[in-house]
Amino acid sequence: MDNEGNRSAAAGVQIPARLRAVGPGWHLLLERLHAQLTVEVPGYRVTDVTEKLGGLRIHVATGEQAVTEKVRALVAASVTEAAATCEFCGAVGRPRSRNDAPGGWIKTVCDSCHTDWSARKVLIVHGAVLRRSL
Question: 65: which DSSP letter?
């Protein structure tokens, strides 16, 4: 079965085409990673960009070339930065569950967005923050 990540790899998609996979708070750091990767490996492609367990997941393919330590380091730095960046707004954040309850869905959020997310006032849909009135 073909999933979205595999279709992206086959099409030679780079990070800008996958920004909608995560919230807008991470878009700037992904755009910066894209600029860095195009210098290292202009023809790179991503096989996956997603949020999982509050963290950013990025998988890069470099075609015929082996993935270099430099590319791995750039990706790792972005993943580390995302772990301290609110996925909703880009402010300083940390991985948290709704209402800080044990278990459940985890997102990396700042205090302000955590309040709204816990109250189910905000969610991320296709890379944008959707505000709901309750």
Answer: S
